[in-house]
Amino acid sequence: MIPNRMSQIAVTTAIATTLLLFAYSTGNRSRCAVPPAPPVVTPMITAPADAETVADADAPIATDVENKVRQAARDFIKEQYPRSRAEGVFLLAFRAGNLYLAGVDMTSPSDSGRSLRATQDLLVRLYVRKNGGTYWRAEQIGSAEAARLRAQAL
After folding, report:
1. What is the C-alpha to C-alpha distance for residues 143 and 34, in angstroms, rounded to an integer?
2. pLDDT at residue 55 above 70?
3. Whole-model pTM?
4. Distant-in-sequence, close-in-space partners of 107: CB < 8 Å, separation ≥ 6
5. What is the pLDDT at residue 26?
6. How far apart are CA 146 and CA 103, in angstroms?
7. What burial class does residue 48 get, using C-beta atoms within 10 Å of its C-beta: 0-12 exposed, 13-18 middle, 19+ buried?
8. What's residue 111's pLDDT?
9. For residue 107, which of 79, 88, 80 has the smallest C-alpha distance?
10. E strand spans, the chain
């Protein structure tokens, strides 16, 4: 038996991800893509991180590129979900640093007064203008496609 609610959520999420990866890898690749699902909203209560874990001396320092990618993800959330707020952004780099999978941890106000938490998966790409200037743009992807990308990266 699982001792607490957080462990139950973690195990359920792991099982669902495994089943999605299995279903995707065994499915017919010629089918049309399924439109991305809306973010899953799960009420959560989180404890604030202690200063020691936040200020870890061994933690890598974010580069200028990673900061721009994170900002593109935050801008997407602000534009698509105006009542929500991006709390944190996870990055996984692909294709020589010009393609990223971003997982945005976001909160949304609810009618009951509690904040609802959700994770939104985004694909963030580097675009080049005719004049050579560059910009980052985020777009929503489904959880199955995000799981497939994470599995490729690992």
Report:
1. 11
2. no
3. 0.58
4. 84, 85, 87, 115, 116, 117, 118
5. 53
6. 9
7. exposed
8. 79
9. 88
10. 40-43, 85-94, 99-109, 115-128, 134-140
- In this prediction, residue 114 carries a pLDDT of 84
CB atoms within 10 A of CB 109: 12
In the structure encoding, which two tokens stand for residue 149, read together?
Answer: 């990308």
Structure tokens at 135: 């910009």
pLDDT of residue 22 exceeding 80, the answer is no
Distance in angstroms (rounded) separating the CA atoms of residues 102 and 70: 8
Largest CA distance in the chain: 61
Q: How far is CA 72 from CA 5, 27, 34, 53, 81, in A?
A: 33, 32, 24, 26, 14
- Give the residue carrying structure tokens 């509690």: 114
| Residues comprising the chain, all counted | 154
Q: Tens digit of pLDDT for each residue in 86-128? A: 999 999 888 767 889 999 999 988 878 788 898 999 999 999 9
In this structure, are strands 99-109 and 40-43 parallel, antiparallel, or unpaired? unpaired
Ranges of H-type helices in 27-142: 51-54, 64-80
Task: Output Rg (C-alpha) for the chain, integer angstroms.
Answer: 17
